[in-house]
Predict the structure.
Amino acid sequence: MSRLHYIRPETLAEALDHLDRHGRRTKILAGGTDLVVDLRNGAVKPDFILDVSRLSEPKGIEVTAEGVSVGAGVTLAEIESSDVLERHAPALRKCSLTFASRQIRNVATIGGNVAHCSPCGDTVPPLVIHEARAVLASRRGRREVLVEDIASGPYACSLPPDELILRFVLKPAPGVTFADFQKIGRRRELAIARINAAAMARQEPDGRLSFFRFSLGSCMPTPHRMQEVESCLNGQVPTAKLIWEAGRLLAERTIAITGRRPSTIYKESAIQGLFLRMLHPLVRP
Amino acid sequence: MDASSVRIRFTLNGQPRSVEFSADTTALKLIRDVLKLKGTKEGCGIGECGACTVIVDGKAVNSCLILAAQLDGRTVQTIEGLGTPEALHPLQEAFVKKHAVQCGFCTPGLLMSTKALLDKNPAPTRAEISKAIAGNLCRCTGYHHIFASIEEAAHHSKEQT
């Protein structure tokens, strides 16, 4: 039987060296709130736990020339109290308000939430509407991938085992007048999302949407943008009828992905309902 | 699972400690089974009930969801560091006075969540209290007495300052 080793690298170079040699046998620990549960129930049996929580590189939230940079090691509590995110990525900040509990938000990180690849990760739809890219580091160098492409299926991470997520870069969305995150869970607090969604729009004075992004999560294998729904509203004045139709289309497209299941009878209406609730503030007569 | 050992140094309830344990030990297991402080409870073991809440560097965390190794160099407070049977912490006194304790299993975790809240925000609104203790389940009280106790403790500390 193999032995579990706990390793806490002092530098990023040490961390990447370890992943280069033992990536396949290693689980990366950022906060621990998902990993420790997986260890407890035997879902994962790594030889090494690489604790990256004390590295300085994956920290901090800042506005850069490329967009808003959010360190992979930033906790949900830090997102919650970030004025920068309230200004530049309000949907991301809003998702932190209903994320798990105070105790979990104090520890859990955005990088861990993305890398865990749960279909219901609450930080993913808000990242996806910003076309966020993850900056990845390994001994081989650095590269970037779209957050939308990281999960290849439920709990299946497409990143190679020698790579570490350093940060996320959210594309600036100039002139956005509306951004929101909504979630349906079985209760208000400590709820795992059954449906979650993020949207962002720029509404012109005449009511027309000159920019509209929408991402759905939880009720599909991986959260992603729903571009047909986006095109349905882009350039249009969102009347109550149009929003209703777009919500209908969203529900149909989601079911086309998941197939009809026992829960469909509920989710079909709930997806459309969540969409209507979310976009109601944009409706013009 | 067989695991290699880890040694850490940290501050527990004001005392410097150096302990060794196996790498797969959670902070909860360290506190209860290695250090024999039984005030911190294990309810669900997966971060849903909050009975295992302790304060790490001023923040409430679920000790079942972090590894003991993550506590290296940190300052940890458990319910044993709050008050003593002879001299209860004002928060504990308020819980007793306002009948916020029934079976008592959730109480240490609730007290630690509340302590972390009041240290940062000595005069919380009811909504702020609700948000701070949403991760602590209590199946006995229905929470009303808990809210009343926390408000009493906050009021008491305001009067003293």
User: Anything to note?
Assistant: The domain at 90-160 of chain B is CATH 1.10.150.120 (DNA polymerase; domain 1). Chain B has two domains: 5-81, 90-160. Chain B has five helices and five strands. Chain B has a mean pLDDT of 95.
